[in-house]
Amino acid sequence: MSSRQGLIREQLYIYRYYIALAAAATFYCGRLYRQFFTVPKKFRHIPAIPYYDLWKSLAGNEPLLKRTQRLVFPILSKGNGIYLNKFPFDWTVYVANPILVKTVLYKPEFATKADAVFAYFPEESAQTHMFGQDNLLASNGDSWKRQRKIMNPAFHRSMPVGVFTNLLPQVFQVTEKADNNTISASKLSKRLTLDAIGKAAFDFNFGSLEDENSVWVKKYELTFKGFMDVIPIIYPKLDYIYRAISKGRRERYNAAFELTKLLDNLADEKRKSLMEKRSTASDNRRQSDKDLLTLMLEAEMAGEGTWSKKELRHNMALFFLAGHDTTSHALAHCLYELAVNPDIQEKARKEAMNVLGTELIDVSPTLEDCKNFPYIDMIIKESLRMHAPFNEISVRVPHNDVELGGVLIPKDTMVNVDIEALHYNPDIWKNPEQFDPERFAEGGEHYSHEGVTWVPFSGGSRICIGINFSMMEQRVALAMLLRKYTWKLPESSKHKNGIITDLPLNFAPDSLEVQFTKRY
Ligand code: HEM
């Protein structure tokens, strides 16, 4: 052996531990890489979005539509409208073929929702305290059927047009107080929809339009800000340490409990007053004017089902979660689309004036009037096509192997619908990036589609229970605003060539300002 070989051997001996460590680390990293980036064997027959590309897109805050066009569309055709994506951390089969979306939404094989978001948080978390794991959105099987049976009539009966119309004069005041009558469409919509959900769901006044810093508005904001805290999301069990050291975290956590207490108190008081009214038969309000809580408790009293105290609280909280921001984003996007499409705005105004009169005074639409706004309805629907607040539904999990469009979906696979891909597919919609309410006219493009192509509210038995509520709220707001103002984007708006979102989601950014001009 030469002296050089001997030296190498000696060096290898000295560094043997490091070498072993490096080999183990390489092996472990390889495993991690395979675990994270490699498509599991059972899914290799489904075209997949590379995990690295997805995270690069998310990290770069690529707009949702751009990501869909760049990463999803090219592989959609390969998989018959089905593709695989690891989003955020688990492999999920996404469906964006209209016929197959219909199967997912309507067939019993796909009826079971995964124990997703709500089951993730521990018992002591603010999320569990507020929403539980058994609310209407999260539950399955008999529990879901029982709850939906009591809630369906409440949502059917309640159409609180009066609540919505009563809030519009305050919207006008806020708008006119703003500098140059220019105001964030998104903030304005949030204030309106918070007061609307408070009044219409629980007969409670958040007073957000009167004062955007009112006590309960702040508690509400703190609560939802707290749900976005990263540490409790990633390590829920460490939240108690975070709370011990951070005053801000404590405030956000406690706000959720205070808000929950408010909901409990509202329910207790309502139950008590209903019992009293029942004995004196003194509640003469029309069904459509009653708040959802009253109607749900009345349904219980009429023997249509029962609510435990917790179930009632979890569902009342759910109405906030599901009904406030969604409608607010939807309305803000309508305001935007009308601002950048003045012809469509004018046509909608004509419809509002035809129904409510041309006299230059505020007129509140009635429930009957609201049935006569077909064009405004088309605008809302087209806006929801282009800016659906949710890009997906809750994950569904088939319990057996199923075939979907000739593709085998192994049992227990997470299955979802890609709403953005469905709503922007140029093979389904003509010029999908163009705002064109006529698609939803009677006999229009939408109605010639096969399968299901418009699902901002999902579909099938788990369709959004608040669909009519939200549509009515937007209808009333738009009709009254259209009569009172014209509006456009301010000259300096950065959104002139399309909305620049803060997140890669269809959420209206606070910077989305609109300039109103009074008509009378
Ligand atoms: C533009 C406004 C809205 C949009 C886009 C929207 C969208 C949706 C979607 C996509 C789902 C299905 C989610 C899933 O599959 O898990 C859903 C369910 C639900 N939504 Fe909405 N929603 C809106 C407004 C509302 C309002 C105003 C309320 C209540 C006042 C509400 C209450 C609910 C509830 C309780 C569910 C669960 C239904 C069930 O699973 O039986 N939503 N919504």
From TrEMBL:
The cofactor(s) it depends on are:
heme
Q: Which UniProt keywords apply?
A: Heme, Iron, Membrane, Metal-binding, Monooxygenase, Oxidoreductase, Transmembrane, Transmembrane helix
MF term (GO), any: oxidoreductase activity, acting on paired donors, with incorporation or reduction of molecular oxygen
List membrane-spanning regions.
12-33
Quote the record's binding site residues for heme: 464
Q: Which Pfam families match?
A: p450
Keyword Repeat attributed? no
PANTHER family given in the database record? BIFUNCTIONAL ALBAFLAVENONE MONOOXYGENASE_TERPENE SYNTHASE, CYTOCHROME P450 FAMILY 4
Family membership, please give it: Belongs to the cytochrome P450 family.
> What is this protein's record name?
Cytochrome P450
